[in-house]
Design brief:
Elements (H helix, E strand, L loop, with lengths): L10 E6 L22 E7 L3 E2 L5 E2 L8 E4 L5 E5 L2 E7 L3 E5 L2
Length: 98
């Protein structure tokens, strides 16, 4: 997907993983019962955080990283018909390694 959104500073654009449609036992979940996953893929990153001495520090995450984030992280936007989250790097808890 070609994303037309460039985050600024220490912000990151994340595409949230799809919510599970059924339970482990095979029960189909209605939309109201689905938990929003706290895992996603980094789609774009900003230029980095400006430190107190005026230098710019690159972000620790990069495009393509699979990440875990807090449940209330970021703001949801629709870009080119796709829902994405725009959050600060601080909202990301970990990078999931394959």
């Amino acid at each position: 997907m070609k994303l037309k959104l460039k985050p600024l500073g220490d912000r990151v654009v994340v595409e949230r993983e799809e919510a599970k449609k059924t339970t482990a036992g095979g029960i189909v979940l209605p939309d109201t019962a689905k938990d929003k996953p706290q895992k996603g893929t980094v789609m774009a990153v900003g230029d980095g955080r400006v430190t107190k001495d005026g230098k710019r520090r690159e972000l620790q995450v990069k495009v393509g990283d699979s990440v875990l984030f807090t449940s209330y992280a970021g703001d949801e936007f629709k870009v080119d018909g796709e829902k994405v989250l725009l959050m600060r790097e601080d909202d990301i808890l970990a990078v999931v390694e394959a």
